[in-house]
Amino acid sequence: MLRLLRDLSMTKAGSHIVRRGWAGLVVVVLTVVCIMQVAPAHGQAVAPQVKVPIDGEYARGLGLPTDVSKHGHGIDWLIHATHVFMAVLFVGWGIFFVYCLVKFRQRPGHQAQYDLVKAKPSKYIEVAVLVVEIVLLLGFSVPIWASVKNDLPDPDKAFRVRVQAEQFAWNFHYPGADKQFGRTDPKLVDTAINPLGLDREGDPHAKDDVFAMELRIPLGVPVICEISSKDVIHSFFLPVMRVKQDSIPGMRIPVWFEAVKEGTYEVACAQLCGNNHYSMRAVMYIQPTTDVEKWLAEKSKPPEEFVD
Amino acid sequence: MSHGSNDHHHHGPDHHHHDHPELGWWRKYVFSTDHKVIGVWYAVTALVFLLLGFSLVMTMRWQLAYPGQPLPVIGALFSENVMPGGVMLPEFYNSLGAMHGTIMVFLGIVPLIVGGFGNYVMPLQIGAPDMAFPKINMASYWVYFVGGIVMLASFFAPGGAANSGWTSYTPLSVTATAGQTWWLIGMVFLITSSLLGSLNFIVTIIQLRANGLSFFRLPFFVWSQFVTAFLLLLAFPPLEAAAVLQLMDRVAGSSFFMPTGLVVSGVVQSYTGGGSPLLWQHLFWFLAHPEVYVLILPGMGMVAEVITSNTRKPLWGYRVMVYSLVFLGFMSFIVWAHHMFITGMGTRISAFFATTTMIISIPSVVILTALVITLYRSSIRYTVPMLFALAFLPMFAIGGLTGLPLGLPAADIQLHDTYYVIGHFHYVVAPGTIFAAFAGIYHWYPKVTGRSMNAALGKIHFWLSFIFINAVFTPMFFQGMAGVSRRLYDQTLYQHGVEVQGWTIMSSWGAWMLGLSQVPFILNFFLSMRAGRKVADNPWESTTLEWAAPSPPPHGNFATVPVVYRGPYEYSVPGTKRDFFPQHLTKAEA
Amino acid sequence: MKRNVVTTMLIGGLALATLVGPAWADDNAVIKGKIIFKGDPDKHKREPLDTTKDANCTKKIGSEHVIIDKDNSPPTLRNVMVSIKEGLGDRKFEAPKTPAILDQTGCQYSPHVLGVVEGQEVVIRNSDNTNHNIHFLPKINDEINKTQPKPMDDVVKLKKEDPFKVKCDVHPWMGMYITVFNHPFFSVTGKDGTYQIKGLPPGKYVVQAWHEKFGTMTANVEVTSGATKENDFTFEPDKK
User: Fold this and answer.
1) Do C115 and C179 touch, CB atoms closer than 8 A?
2) pLDDT in tens, B246-292
3) B89: three-class secondary structure by DSSP
4) Closest Cα of chain A to C137: distance in Å?
C-alpha cells in the first residue's frame, strides 16, 4: 500500500494528484474549522451562574476587557505597545523568512553560497530589539509596578477591605464605622455564621465589622484590599480593575486601586485551588460612597427574615 | 575493557570489537547497554506517553467546549466514579490536567528529545562506539520506566491521580488526595533517571569525541545536548529535595510548606505550622525554568541539523550560536521567579527577574535569527523533515514573542495564570519542540531502520498538523486577554468566560482534528519499517558523522573509527565535486 | 397411645416456645417525648446567611445551629437526635431497604440532622440548578469530598459512627450532621419538638438526646411489650 502510494506520488500525474489531494483536504478542513468558529456556542454552563446583571461590555472578542480603574490605562498601554512591538518583529522577520523560502528553493542552475553572508542589518536589529525591550521594561513596566506596589494610599483616607479566600468562596471583611478590623481567630471559625472567625465577644473593634460574600466599593475613592487565604493559595483577580494578587495563607498582602466608573463586575480566582476552583466567583459592585455606606449599615443590623 | 574508559588518543582499528559472548534475546533487545537500543526504547516509550498525554487533553477539551454534556461513545469507557453518565467531574478534570502536564513534560518530551534522540544520535555524531557509561545508560531508562508506571498507576489510587497541576503548589498539594503522594514518588524516579542520563551525556561528550573532533567542530545538535545535560544536572536536585520535603509534609506531619493557622473546610488543621508555601514555588521553579530550556534546546539542535542538510550550506554564525547556547543555559538559572511575579513581589526583586528575562530573550533571538539567515542564499530542499524544521521557526518565534508581555511584571498582572500563558508555552513546546521532534524522526528514521518514511504521508501529516495546531493555540491568546483563567473546569460560570466560549470550541475541534492528523504519521512510522524504501548510509547527503555509519549501525557503530578533518557543515564548498564534504573524509576521498 | 404423643408434642412445643419466645415476642414498644428548651430564646437568635456568592441560591435562609420553636409551650428545640444508646444487647438489625435521602435544595441541606442505619443506602441528591460539593468530615468512615456539578444523585453506605459534620465547599454556609447507627431506633425532632421511637423490643434502655451545640443528655427508660413511655428532655444550656 505504501509502496503503491510512493510510486504513484512519483509519477507526474501522481504528484499532481497528491498535491491537489492534500490541498483539497486542507481546504475542506479549513472550512470546517471556520464553521466551528462561527457556530453558536451551544455548550451551556453546567450550573449557570451568570444571573447577576453584569454591566458594560466585558470582552470584545480579541482584546482586553473594559477598564474601569484609574491605573489600568498604563497597564493596557504597556500590553498594547508590547504587542505592536511583537507584531513589527514578527512581520518583518516573517517577510524575510518567506522571501528566503521562495527565492532560495532548490532548482536547476541554483547553487547555495558557502561563503559567510555578511549580516550587518541583523546586528543593528538585535541592538534595536534590546533597546526597545529595555525601554518597555525600565521606562514603563518598572514605574507602573512600583506605583502599584509602593504608592499605597493613606489608609485613613482609603476604603479598606480584607479579602479572605477559602475553598471555594471569597469572604469580605469590612471594618465598620470604627475603621478598625476586629481580631480574627481560626478557632472561632464557624462556616455558617462566622467564616472569618471574628472575635465578636472579645474584641470591641469586631462588634461593628461587617462580613459579606460580595465586594462593594465606592466610586472614585482609593480602595485597599488586604488579601489572604484560609487554606490554600488562591488569587484575587478583578479583570476590569487590572488587579491580580495571589492569596497566600499565612500572608496578608495589600493591593490598591480606584474605580472610575460605576457598575457590576466579577471577582475571579486565578490560581488552581481545588475541585471547585471554577466556581469561585464573587460579584463586585462599584457604587457611590453613600450607597456603599448605606449597604454596610444595613448589613451591620441584620433583619430576621428568612425561610424557616 | 569498556571503550568508554579509553583515552581518545588510543583509538585503533583493533579496538572496535567488543570481546564478550553473543548476548541472549533479553540482554540484546530489552536490557541492552547499547545506546542505540536504549535510544529506541526511550523514543518509543516517550511517543506512547505523548499520545497518552494528548488523549487526556482531548478528553478534557470536550468538557471545555460543551460543559456538562455527556462525552459520546468514549464517555462510557470511564467509570461512574469519575464520569457519571459520561459527564466529567471537576476532580477528574483537574487530575487529567495535572497529569497531562506531567506526562507531556517529564514522560514525553524530555525522554524523547534527550533520552531518545540524544542517546541514539549523539554518540554517532561524535564518532564514539557507545556512551561513556553504558550500564548507567540502561539504568536511567529503566528508572524512567518505573517512574512512568508509578505515574500511570496513580490514576487508580483512591481519589484518583494528582490533581494540583503539574506545578503542585502547596498547600493545595499537601492537602490533596493520595494520588499526589504517588506523583511525588514518581517524580523522584524520573529525576533520578535524568540525573543519571545527564552525567553520562556530559562525560561522553567531553571524553569520547573522535580524533580531530574539537569542540568547535561538534554538530550543533551535540552542543545542544551538552548544555541541556548541564541544565538537567544542576537544576533537578533542588526539585528532588523539594519533592521529598513535600512528601514529608504529606505523610510525616512536617510543615516545610504549611503555614500556621490553616482552616480547611471549616476544620482547624493540626499542622505544626511555620512553613512557607512560597518556598515550594521557589524550589519548584528553580528547576522548572531550566526545564523549559531543556524542552527547547535539543529541538533547536535537531532543527539545525535538518536545516543544514536541506539548505546545502553551513550554519550561519555557528560560533555565535554556540556562545548563545551556553549563555542561555547560564541565564536560565536566574530567571525563575518570573513565574512568581504575582505572589506579592516588591519592585526590586521583580525588576531583577524581569531584567534577566529580557536578557535571556536575546540568545534565543540570536539562535532563531541565525537559523533564518542560514536560509539566505541557500538551496532549500523541501523534504518532509525540512517542512517541520521550517515550521518550527515561526512557531517558536510566536512562542518566544508572547513571552514578552508575560515577562514584563506590570503587563503580567493582567495576563498571569490566564489562557495567554497556556498559548505562550504551548507554542514553544507543541508547534515548537514537537515539530522539531517530528523533523528529527523523519530525518533520522533512515539511519535507525535503513528505510525511509513515505514522503506523501509525511506531507499530509505536516500540513494537517500545522493547520490544526494553530487552530488549537491561537484562540488562547484572545481568551487570555479577555481574562479567562487557567485550569477552569467550566469557564462559562463567568460572564467574561461566556463571551469568549466560541474560541474554546474552536480550540477543541482543532485538538480533535490534530489528533486525527497523527494517524498518517503513526501508519507511516510502523508501515515504513517493513515496506519503506530501502536507503543507503547517507540518503540526505549530510556531512555529520552519524551518516558515516551503516544504516542501521551495528553494535560498536563504526567499521573503522572515524577521524575528523573539518567542521560539521561543510556544504557547497567551492572547488569540491559534490555539494557536501563529510567531516570524516580526507581531501582525497571527497 | 396417640394422646400421649400429642401431649408430649404439645408440651415439647411449649417448652421450645419459651426458649425462643423472646425473639418472637412483639417489637412494638414506643418511647416518645418532647425536647424542651429552658432559658432565654433571645440568647440563641438565628442569623440570616449570606448566600450572595451564588446567584442561584435565591432562598433566604437562616443559621441552623440552634432552632428554638418559641411558639410551642413550652418552647422546644428542633433538630435534636434522640436514639437508643444502650439496652439492645448484641441483637443485630437489618438495614432498611429504602434509602435515606440527603437533599441539597435551595442551597441548604434537607434534613439538617440525619440518622441512617449501618449498611443502608444514603442517597445524596443535588436538587439545585447549581454545583454542590459533598464534603463528609467523619472520624471513622472515609472522608468523602466529591463534586456534583449538576442535578444528580450519589449513593454511599456508611459504618457506625457518632454524629459527624457534612458541609459543602462551594456554599460554605451549608452544613448538617449525619449519625450512623447499627439499629433503626432513632428520631429527630421537628417543628413541634417531639420525637418518637417505635417498634422497640421490651427492655431497659438508655435514651440519648444529642444537640449539635448543647451536647448530649441521657435518660433511663424501661418499656414492656406494647407499652408507650413518655420521656421528655430539658436542655438548659445557659444555666451556670
Assistant:
1) yes
2) 999 999 999 999 999 899 998 998 888 899 999 999 999 999 999 99
3) coil
4) 13
User: pLDDT tens digit string along A163-216?
Assistant: 999 999 999 999 988 889 999 999 999 998 899 999 988 999 988 899 999 999
- State which amino acid sits at residue B45: T
- The answer to whether the CB atoms of B89 and C147 lie below 8 A apart is yes
> Minimal CA–CA distance to B375: which of B308, B321, B322, B436?
B308
Q: Which residues in chain A land under pLDDT 50?
A: 38-47
What is the per-residue pLDDT for A49?
Answer: 52
Give the SS3 label for residue C205: strand
CA distance B185 to B243: 8
Q: How far apart are CA B35 and CA B3, in angstroms?
A: 13
What's at B265, amino acid-wise?
S
Angle of helix B384-401 relative to helix A72-103, nearest 10 degrees?
A: 160
Element (H, E) at B243: helix B220-251
Using the beta-carbon criterion (under 8 Å), do A47 and C46 form an inter-chain contact? no
Q: Which residues contact B517 (CB under 8 A, 6 or more apart)?
A: B461, B464, B465, B468
Provide the CA A93 distance to its chain's centre, in angstroms: 30
Burial, A153: exposed, middle or buried (Cβ in 10 Å; 0-12, 13-18, 19+)? middle
Helices B318-331 + B277-311 axis angle, to 10? 170
Please tell me the distance from the alpha carbon of residue B101 to that of residue B96, in angstroms, as a whole number: 9
DSSP B38: H
| Strand, coil or helix: C25 | coil
Give chain A's contact residues with C (Cβ, < 8 Å). Answer: 46-52, 166-170, 190-193, 195, 211-214, 274-276, 279, 281-283, 302-308
- This model of the complex carries an ipTM of 0.90
Q: Is C110 on the interface with B (CB under 8 A)?
A: no
Confidence check: pLDDT of B199 > 50: yes
The confidence score (pLDDT) of residue B538 equals 92
Q: Tell me how far apart the alpha carbons of residues B472 and B463 are, in angstroms, rounded to a whole number.
A: 14
- Of C116, C148, C117, the C-alpha closest to C130 is C148
Which DSSP letter does residue B28 get?
I
- Of the partner residues C137, C149, C175, the one whose CB lies closest to the CB of residue B89: C149
DSSP β-bridge partners for residue A161: A225
